[in-house]
Design a protein that fits this description.
It contains 11 helices and 10 strands. By secondary structure, the chain is α/β, with parallel strands linked by helices.
């Protein structure tokens, strides 16, 4: 399938070549009162993007909980904080400020890793206070970002979940997830696994600009096919849907995913919390200057005149005429390609507590 040709327009800036980073600046941490300004006589505009640093995270727990009515899970596991994928629009960017870093380049070049995550997960699943329930990976940053190929923290967590037969739903932009098909197949024997591939565009050039270190669209579709052929529930996440940018691709994205074997789909309109809005606006100015105001106005139209709506019930849906049109297009396309015809029900019936230190049972 050929992607729609909506990107070859006067709104593009062909001189704004894709980089290996999603953003080019480190905006001020909103919690910091002191800011370091680079010396203009020293700064080199041609300097290469910073190399990725990996910092050990000493978290004492690994399962996070939320009470959001917008989500269909309460528990999530995030083996990493920050994400090297570098998606410019990522809603999780501001979380890096809690670690004393910036939501900009720091978020995608200073990655906090949690090597103790599998042991912590075993301990928490072994505890009598744990009530078997769906665990999402990842509820924050991508659990299959590039360094996972080497560190294998996510895989080790899946080994614990497979032993416990605790249901897991994975969301990722990286086809590396297919490496762990064996473990997900074991979980699927107990109706305890599902994989959602986040697919935002079929345009390889746009992907390089907006999600620079993610897997190409063809690789993501191939991943969906592998899981579908293995009988593991596979779905597609069109997240985010950006008005006047990748929004016109919604029908084509669903068709391509359904052809690959996806049977479930979800749509989330773009939301830009805190400083992410400024970074996204700067990105538009660089890459799509002629379409910048149209895109921003459409976003405001869906967010009560703002760049973000943090209210439960509307933050994941959007409001207004344009948001409703987007939902209708999505629903019609889903019916046309035959996705979302049934519920995805994962089971906790086969859960068993993993073996662990007896002290964790108290």
């Amino acid at each position: 399938m050929n992607p729609p040709d909506q990107h070859a327009s006067s709104g593009d800036n062909p001189r704004a070549t894709p980089t290996t980073r999603g953003v080019t600046s480190n905006p001020v941490n909103r919690f910091e009162s002191i800011q370091v300004e680079p010396d203009p006589d020293w700064y080199d505009e041609d300097e290469r993007p910073p190399r990725t640093e990996f910092i050990r995270d000493h978290s004492q727990t690994i399962i996070s909980y939320n009470d959001s009515p917008d989500l269909n899970f309460r528990a999530s596991v995030n083996p990493y904080r920050g994400c090297e994928h570098g998606c410019v629009y990522c809603y999780a960017r501001p979380t890096h400020e809690y670690a004393g870093m910036s939501a900009g380049l720091d978020f995608e070049s200073k990655i906090l890793i949690k090597p103790e995550a599998p042991e912590l997960l075993r301990k928490e699943l072994s505890a009598r206070r744990w009530k078997p329930q769906l665990i999402a990976m990842s509820g924050g940053t991508d659990c299959y970002q590039p360094v996972e190929r080497k560190l294998r923290i996510t895989r080790a967590c899946l080994e614990v979940l497979a032993e416990a037969r605790n249901p897991v739903a994975i969301i990722t932009k990286n086809d590396l997830v297919t490496r762990d098909l064996d473990l997900l197949a074991k979980l699927n024997e107990h109706k305890a696994a599902a994989v959602f591939i986040s697919l935002t565009t079929l345009d390889a050039d746009l992907r390089k600009r907006i999600e620079p270190r993610t897997s190409p669209p063809k690789a993501r579709l191939k991943a969906i096919r592998k899981f579908a052929e293995a009988g593991i529930p596979a779905g597609v996440m069109i997240a985010p849907a950006i008005p006047a940018l990748n929004e016109p691709e919604i029908p084509a994205l669903l068709e391509a995913a359904a052809e690959a074997g996806a049977r479930h789909a979800a749509l989330v309109p773009l939301r830009l919390p805190l400083g992410v809005a400024d970074m996204f606006e700067a990105w538009l100015e660089e890459h799509f200057p002629m379409r910048k105001e149209k895109i921003l106005n459409r976003i405001r139209d869906m967010r009560d005149g703002r760049m973000n709506d943090a209210n439960f019930g509307s933050r994941m849906q959007g409001k207004g005429v344009h948001a409703e049109q987007m939902r209708k297009i999505f629903e019609i396309a889903c019916r046309k390609v035959g996705v979302n015809q049934g519920d995805l029900n994962l089971s906790t019936d086969s859960f068993r507590r993993p073996e662990g230190d007896q002290l964790t049972l108290l």
